[in-house]
Prior knowledge:
This protein is an alpha/beta fold. Helices cover about 25% and strands about 25% of the residues.
Amino acid sequence: MTKLAIIGGTGFAQFxxxxxxxxxxFTTPYGAPSxxxxxxxxxxxxxxxxxxxxxxxxxxxxxxxYRANIWGLKQLGVxxxxxxxxxxxxxxxxxxxxxxxxxxxxxxxHSRLHTFFDDENxxxxxxxxxxxxxxxxxxxxxxxxxKANINITPIGTYGCAQGPRLETxxxxxxxxxxxxxxxxxxGMPEAALAKELGMDYAAVAVVANWxxxxxxxxxxxxxxxxxxxxxxxxxxxxxxxxxTLA
Length: 246
Ligand code: HPA
């Protein structure tokens, strides 16, 4: 049976629907993962849950030990990763609380430890990254949304900003011109690291707010929390359906 993991992000530090079987904590050659690896069961399927920012949410996007997280999941035998990401909406359809299954990435992050292929542990390999997300896993997520009756956008380009600050209006304008539909802070290097270790990886982007400059006003944490509350409830239904299809 293919081992599945869900990485939870902002607004999804705990997977409440999961019946917990065990918690594991270990360090890796890359240091400590963000949180315990929680093995649980939902709809008869086993899944490992990891809170990317820690639980409670304390680790900033640029401080997340992405390598330890991905290496740890690989060590536990995980072959498929569904990554949940809170994002800002850039293009018109990406309204707050909407969900998208992105198909492309533009990486604007920097100064992060972003590869396993920089020491003697692994031979240097230039992975193909033409399609950063696994197409089959994306297709299953898209079917899961249909099964759960949730309206989603089945494509989109995810722009990964450095954070932890939100963007300027001009930065979002540039990202839109580049072709980004949503903006987050944690999609990279996570997706590339999973691919380096040969794991299937796809993301579910939950829109928390209109990106900077889109409303004319400023972005407040209160609005982010309000929209994420609605978006994450939909996400939970999508994931429940996913567990029966994966
Ligand atoms: N920008 C970057 N990351 C985000 C945003 C945003 O507007 N909202 C939620 N995560």
